[in-house]
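Chain A, query sequence.
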Amino acid sequence: MPERRSALSGAAKRPLPAGLPREWYETHNRRLKAMRLAIALLDTGVYHPANASNRRIRTTAESIGIRPPSDTTCRMVRSLIHYDD
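Chain A, predicted structure.
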């Protein structure tokens, strides 16, 4: 699997706004992590939320070099992998 960080490092990063509650930053970072994981899972052929178990999500996180996600982040990843019949 290709390294994702190298592709993202070229984008101009802006600092996060100051003065917001800590929960806002935690939620923001959780959403970013969930999005990275959802994209990685889609790249590996996981197109249905039922196929994205916590174990598979955590294994994917390890393979792309990010810390293992919490149960909450795993649920968020599954919600991002939306399946239409």
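The chain has a mean pLDDT of 87. The radius of gyration is 14 Å.
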